[in-house]
Write a structure and sequence with these properties.
The protein has 160 residues and is an alpha+beta fold. 32% of the residues lie in helices and 25% in strands. It contains four helices and five strands. Strands 1-2-3-4-5 form a five-stranded mixed beta sheet, sandwiched between helices.
Length: 160
């Protein structure tokens, strides 16, 4: 069903479509909606970096999917790791192979950069995403995610 859909590198002019996909993703996982200005600024930063590709899936309806990734040197293991902080597919294009096409290109980029590990995050509540990633051979790792959310000047109280 992905006939005619192609994966390409994102461009600055894709910012509106990527913002719409980021908003759909936020709604799916219960996050707050990102501002267009914020998404556009981050996209431009990522496009300027050699180790932070952004991919889009483009079909007859325009941009219908996006994946961003970081190629990170892993000093502890002496190789590279690819992290996928965002993968989103337009709701009306889910379960059509778009996500699989994006992840195939992520795997190609990982291989081209000597990365034998691809990391991604899916919330425990996002069952559909977790099932999708498992269908591609990903396994849920036994890790405990720790996040620092707040200001460096006014850090969160550790007892709260």
């Amino acid at each position: 069903m992905t006939s005619g859909t192609r994966i390409r590198g994102a461009r600055a002019e894709d910012a509106r479509a990527i913002h719409a996909l980021a908003c759909e993703l936020a709604a799916t996982v219960g996050d707050s909606q990102p501002s267009f200005e914020g998404v556009e600024a981050r996209l431009l930063e990522l496009l300027d970096g050699p180790r932070s590709p952004v991919l889009v899936a483009e079909g007859k309806d325009g941009v219908v999917g996006v994946a961003s990734l970081w190629i990170k040197p892993d000093l502890a293991h002496g190789d590279a790791v690819v992290e996928v902080p965002m993968l989103a597919v337009a709701e009306d294009h889910r379960r059509t192979g778009v996500g699989k096409l994006l992840m195939e290109e992520v795997r190609n980029i990982a291989a081209d950069n000597g990365a034998y590990l691809i990391e991604l995050v899916a919330t425990s509540a996002n069952v559909a995403a977790r099932e999708f990633y498992r269908s591609l051979g990903f396994v849920e790792a036994d890790v405990v995610p720790l996040e620092f959310v707040g200001s460096q000047e006014d850090p969160p109280d550790p007892d709260e």
